Amino acid sequence: MTSTPHFSFPPSFVTQWFSRLQPPAWAVEEAQRRVVLFLNHVLMQEPQAQARLAPHAGRVVLVQWRAFNIRLAVTPAGLFDVAEGEPLSDLTLTLGDTSPLELAKRAARGEKPALRIEGDVQLAADFNWLIANVRWDVEEDLSRVVGDAPAHAVASAGRRAAEGLRQFVADRRADR
Fold this sequence. Notes:
- The chain has two domains: 24-136; 138-175.
- The chain is 54% helix and 15% strand.
- The chain has helices at residues 12-20, 25-44, 47-53, 100-108, 121-133, 138-146, 148-175; strands at 60-65, 68-74, 80-82, 91-95, 115-119.
- Strands 3-2-1-4-5 form a five-stranded mixed β-sheet, covered by helices on one side.
- The chain starts with 11 loop residues before the first helix and ends with a helix.
- Pfam families: SCP2.
């Protein structure tokens, strides 16, 4: 005889309650500024990326995922700044995967997330180029802090862990 549980964990009302929680405005603004600092750090390591973005100075890219969004204004230097106010966006990128787990699975498989793109075609093409070609050189940044040899060891371990995770996801997918 099979029986179904009378309750689920976590209860649906808890899930709904957490989904309605919104961080305070100051925390959202600070998180957005940190994201922009990180993006600019990565872009500054790629002069070609800055050169591709610079002609789009003044344009605004809206990136949306679930209830979160960030408006990025392109600067004349080919970097980003948080777009103040509610300017119209020239390009809107909406992540299609609403589940953080699904996003993580796609990343582990080395896949791009499902993305809906609306707006300026040339800006979208250059943004797509950035996504395809610009990578954060973690090892280089880490070597500035701990030295070359330890940075190489940590980066190698990270690559092995990522490959193991990719393999695990692929195996689990094949078992279905």
